[in-house]
Amino acid sequence: MTTLNTKIEERRGELAMCKVDVGKEVLSTTLSHKINVPKPKNFKGTRSTREMDNFLWKMEQYF
User: Fold this and answer.
1) pTM flag (> 0.85)
2) Rg for the chain (alpha carbons), in Å?
């Protein structure tokens, strides 16, 4: 019975170490996704309908 208890305690220690290792992996592999979202051109006093249509079409293609 005592050998069974010692083996259980050993396995619990190993499990704790595995959890720590997995936790380190998760923290070190956090990905930062940089998304390139289309932006309209700067407003220069007039805006053509074609530019707006092109921008909206690009947004539809993006999503």
Assistant:
1) no
2) 28
**In this structure, are residues 58 and 41 in contact, taking their beta carbons and an 8 Å threshold?**
no
Task: Give me the residue spans of the domains in the chain.
Answer: 2-62
CA dihedral (52, 54, 58, 60) positive or negative: positive
Neighbour-count burial for 17-39, b at 16+ CB within 10 Å, e otherwise: eeeeeeeeeeeeeeeeeeeeeee
Reported as a single tens digit per residue, the pLDDT across 2-15 is: 888 888 888 888 88
